[in-house]
Recover the amino acids of this structure.
């Protein structure tokens, strides 16, 4: 089951939420374990960069591509 990292917008506490993809798509009810606020934003983590069980690769073309971009 995936872990999602969130940061509370009120107190800054970082916390993890374990939920299935189905639960997340249905909408999670988040509560900060420190201040009990329901205001949180999802943080970008290494795990969230995994796509289909494989690491996503950096772009090879476009504005965010490094050297060797095809132009």
């Amino acid at each position: 089951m995936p872990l999602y990292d969130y940061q509370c917008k009120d107190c800054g506490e970082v916390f993890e939420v374990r939920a299935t993809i189905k639960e997340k798509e249905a909408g999670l009810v988040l509560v900060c374990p420190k201040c009990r606020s329901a205001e949180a934003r999802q943080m970008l983590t290494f795990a969230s960069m995994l796509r289909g069980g494989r690491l996503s690769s950096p772009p090879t073309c476009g504005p965010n591509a490094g050297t060797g971009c095809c132009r």
About this structure: Strands lie at 3-8, 14-18, 40-42, 50-51, 54-55. DSSP finds one helix and five strands in the chain. The longest helix spans residues 21-26. The chain has one domain: 3-55.
